[in-house]
Amino acid sequence: MFAAFHTFLLSWALMFVILGVVLKPAVEVIMGPVVSRIVFWMTYIALIGAKIYLKRKTGMCESRVRVIGKTTIITGADSGIGKETALAMAYRGSKIIMACRDVEKANKARDEIIRRTENKKVEVHHLDLASLASIRKFANNIIDTEIKVDILINNAGATGLGNKRTADNLHIGMQVNHFGPFLLTCLLAGKMKKSAPSRIIMVSSYLHHCAKFDIDNLNCEKKLNESQVYFCSKLANIMIANELAKKLKGTGVTVNCVHPGLVYTRTWRYLPSKLQPALKYILTMFFKTEFEAAQTSIFAAIDKDLEDVTGKFFCDCKEIKPSHKALNEDLAKKVWEKSAVLVGLKPEEIDF
Ligand SMILES: NC(=O)c1ccc[n+]([C@@H]2O[C@H](COP(=O)([O-])OP(=O)(O)OC[C@H]3O[C@@H](n4cnc5c(N)ncnc54)[C@H](OP(=O)(O)O)[C@@H]3O)[C@@H](O)[C@H]2O)c1
């Protein structure tokens, strides 16, 4: 319903943009100058109306909770939504472990976060989700060196990676967005259980609704287009989170998913370059800033009312319903089992 209204509003605004700006000379010739002027002004009213509506819908994390003494791991914390999340959590006093692929870039982001928040407990650790060895090395180091892990935010994600296979013989897009975060979460869940109360957050996407998901093609042996790889991986995020929430029920570890909202970041790079200027314009004009997009992750990580809430999906700091498929428990179980086999999860690695 909400998505349908969004779509209606945008189509309406877009129609007026096309009529009022792009086709203005044609409208003037066919309908005359008066109608043309009306359409032109309607365009501006439509644009301003759409913008006001969408800004009012943007949920902000109102919680004043401080997280001093807590340790938060955020993957992909060197740019986009992840960096804003790290900044907000550092402001609130948490120790931050930025789990990033590009250490040099992450160091620059860390220096900025320390300068802006005056919180010196911000560290960069190398993590490449496209390598199972890197994930295991990162997780083992955390298990050995950190006293506790209170919050894990699986934020990193990527698109436009093509149809390559990684050294682990996994589809690269599925590995970075689904298999990697799945393995990382499984490896750290035991530590988080010992650190309870603790929270695991998966940054998924509302676009999981568009997934044409086939459990027999989880590793994309049959070629999928870029968009479907992304949609399916984001659906898998929710199923894995729900399955883990069930497994961890009663342990003090909660597992929830978020849709951050739409914001122009490199997430959109998989769309054709010709579309990029228009996409950038529309997303920047109508949708969220990175700061706004980070709000639901922050909310899921700290809000007091969510202490015992697990297996839910949030957007704009409110619970929303994921797709029917995302709630299919049998399918989620199969995704879990198949993923465990594909990442070679050993019984001794599961400590929860
Ligand atoms: N932007 C949106 O509209 C939107 C909407 C719904 C959901 N999301 C989700 O929000 C999350 C954050 O995305 P964003 O929009 O902030 O995009 P972004 O600016 O591209 O950030 C993605 C982060 O993930 C990291 N990453 C990519 N591949 C990695 C790998 N192999 N190993 C470790 N880290 C890796 C990136 O690191 P590098 O800098 O090294 O590439 C970057 O830090 C993603 O999960 C995305 O799917 C975004």
TrEMBL record:
UniProt keyword annotation of ATP-binding present: no
Domain of life: Eukaryota
Pfam families: adh_short
Keyword tags: Membrane, Oxidoreductase, Transmembrane, Transmembrane helix
GO molecular function: oxidoreductase activity
Chain segments annotated as coiled-coil in the UniProt record: none
Record InterPro entries: NAD(P)-bd_dom_sf, SDR_fam
Transmembrane segments: 7-26, 38-54
PANTHER family: PHOSPHATIDYLINOSITOL-GLYCAN BIOSYNTHESIS CLASS F PROTEIN (PTHR43157:SF31), PHOSPHATIDYLINOSITOL-GLYCAN BIOSYNTHESIS CLASS F PROTEIN-RELATED (PTHR43157)
Protein's name in the database: Retinol dehydrogenase 13
UniProt lineage: Eukaryota, Metazoa, Ecdysozoa, Arthropoda, Hexapoda
